[in-house]
C-alpha cells in the first residue's frame, strides 16, 4: 500500500511539471482581463421633422406645345406653395417679350437662363425673365409676356418651392417713436398725411 501511494504521488508531480512547461493559457472570452467591446453609437438625428419654411428643389417637365410659365404657375397654385424658378433647359418657339411693347422672336431657340417667382395666391401666370441663344451666336432676352414662352420640345424647369413665407409690403409703416432714415418717406395711415422724411 505504501508503494502504491508513493507511485501515485510521483505521477501527480510529473503531471504538474508537464502542464507548467507547456504554453501559457490564453484568457477565455469570459476571463477577468478581457476588454469590453464598445457598442456602436446610434446616429445623431438633427431634425425629426421637416421645417415648414424650408425650401425644396423640384424638377418639372413641360411637354411640347404648352406655355412654360403657365405650367409653373398652375403647379404653384395646385400645391399651395410658392415656386422660385432657378433655371430651365430646352427649346421654345416664337417667344414674346416686353420691349416695352410685345416683341415676337420668330423661330426655335434654346433656353440659356430662366428666372421668375410664382405665388399660390396669384391668379396670373407670374413674372419671369428669359435669355435665349439666338441665331449666329447672339443672345436675346428680357421679360416674358404671359403665354409667350411655348415649349418647342420637352422643357425641364428647376424650381425651389416654399410654403411658410412672410409677405411684407414696402415701405413699412413707421412705428411710433421710431426715427426714419434720411431720404426715406414717412408712410402714414392716411395718404393725405404722407410726407418725405427729409423735410
TrEMBL record:
Gene3D superfamilies reported in the protein's UniProt record: Hypothetical protein, similar to alpha- acetolactate decarboxylase, domain 2
Keywords: Membrane, Transmembrane, Transmembrane helix
Domain PPC, first and last residues per copy: 52-190
A Gene Ontology molecular function term of the record: minor groove of adenine-thymine-rich DNA binding
Bilayer-spanning residue ranges: 111-133, 139-167
One Gene Ontology cellular component: nucleus
One Gene Ontology biological process: vegetative to reproductive phase transition of meristem
Xref: CDD domains: DUF296
The organism's place on the tree of life at top rank: Eukaryota
Region (Disordered): 1-43
PROSITE patterns: PPC (PS51742)
Cytoplasm in keyword set: no
Protein's name in the database: PPC domain-containing protein
Amino acid at each position: 500500500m505504501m508503494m502504491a501511494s508513493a507511485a501515485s504521488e510521483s505521477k501527480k508531480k510529473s503531471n504538474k511539471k508537464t502542464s507548467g512547461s507547456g504554453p501559457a493559457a490564453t484568457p477565455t472570452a469570459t476571463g477577468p482581463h478581457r476588454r469590453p467591446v464598445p457598442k456602436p453609437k446610434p446616429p445623431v438625428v438633427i431634425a425629426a421633422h421637416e421645417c415648414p419654411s424650408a425650401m425644396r428643389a423640384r424638377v418639372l417637365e413641360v411637354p411640347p406645345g404648352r406655355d412654360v410659365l403657365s405650367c409653373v404657375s398652375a403647379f404653384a397654385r395646385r400645391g399651395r406653395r410658392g415656386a422660385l424658378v432657378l433655371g430651365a433647359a430646352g427649346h421654345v418657339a416664337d417667344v414674346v417679350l416686353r420691349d416695352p411693347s410685345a416683341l415676337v422672336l420668330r423661330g426655335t431657340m434654346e433656353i440659356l437662363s430662366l428666372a421668375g417667382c410664382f405665388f399660390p395666391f396669384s391668379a396670373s401666370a407670374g413674372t419671369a425673365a428669359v435669355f435665349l441663344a439666338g441665331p449666329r451666336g447672339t443672345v436675346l432676352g428680357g421679360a416674358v409676356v404671359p403665354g409667350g414662352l411655348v415649349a418647342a420640345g420637352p422643357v425641364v424647369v428647376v424650381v425651389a418651392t416654399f410654403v411658410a413665407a412672410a409677405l411684407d409690403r414696402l415701405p413699412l409703416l413707421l412705428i411710433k417713436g421710431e426715427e426714419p432714415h434720411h431720404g426715406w418717406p414717412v408712410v402714414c395711415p392716411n395718404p393725405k398725411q404722407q410726407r418725405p422724411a427729409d423735410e
